[in-house]
Amino acid sequence: MKIRTITTALAAAVLASVAPADEDADLVVEGETLITRAPAPAHVENLTEVLSGWLFRSDETQALQTDDFDNPGMIFVDQALDTWDEVDGAAGKACASCHEDPSSLAGVRTTMPKVNEDGELWAMEDYVNDCRTTRMEAEPWKWESQDMLNMTALVSLQSRGMPMNVAIDGPAQSYWEQGKEMYYTRYGQLDMACANCHEDNYGNMIRADHLSQGQINGFPVYRLKWAGLGSIHRRFKGCMENIRAEPFKRGSDEFTALELYLASRGEGLSVEGPSVRN
Fold it and tell me: What are 242-269's pLDDT values in tens digits?
């Protein structure tokens, strides 16, 4: 897909420096302290440490995530638990038919996205739909459907507190390099790359909000702005629209490669999903 790109100085005018958010806070959920800052992985060239987006939020927003009773994303986890046992499709199976208990999927979120047996890079949503179509013989869910968001939230929750650890070598290397190239490529009428905000200006303000490092260890995320859950690819789409670029589609090869690169930038940070953000 060809994306219109023009050189402009307008992007610089959007950013205004302010004091960064409190980076010494601890994210404690259900008595467990999650890792929200860690030394930058060796393959991240321009950062000395990686910081969870939770650190850049207000005290009130942070507090919503620290209690599962208050976290609005947990409502959708409960809905997924109901779906887990529901038989769907011609094969007469439910998620529980193969996986029994959701806790059996602990660690899955830490490795996503990853290359499948056919050499294709798949996000978690792709694996969910493969189970539905191949094993359950049911209709696939749309990427941003409520059922899909609920299920990815439930699966992510099983890995909460575990460190992100995606594979970026072997068959994943070419996808990782594609994602890295996208991260540093300028797109749209504002002529901006992901790195311009999330690497060069994190901790500064853009309009009325702090810029974070753009880490994705908290997805799917409950955004107060959305009043609901959203996927990683929805956030990518929103960013591209903000810089006046034509976005790729949710589930596209391009967005999945970018997801892999961003997941690798957060290596060592705890899985937080479902997290709460502005």
Answer: 999 999 999 999 999 999 999 999 999 9
Report pTM: 0.91
Nearest of 181, 174, 195, 176 to residue 243 by alpha carbon: 195
What is the Cα–Cα distance from 113 to 220, expressed in whole angstroms? 13
Active site residues: 239
* Domain range list for the chain: 10-71+161-277, 74-84+92-157
Residues whose CB falls within 8 Å of the CB of residue 244, separated by 6 or more in sequence, listed in order: 188, 189, 190
Note whether 23 and 51 are within 8 A (CB).
yes
d(CA 149, CA 219): 10
The H or E element containing residue 15 is strand 15-16
Cα–Cα distance, 73 to 65 (Å, whole number): 9
The topology (CATH level 3) of 10-71+161-277 is Cytochrome Bc1 Complex; Chain D, domain 2 (1.10.760)
Distance, in Å, from the CA atom of 248 to the CA atom of 251, rounded to the nearest integer, reads 9
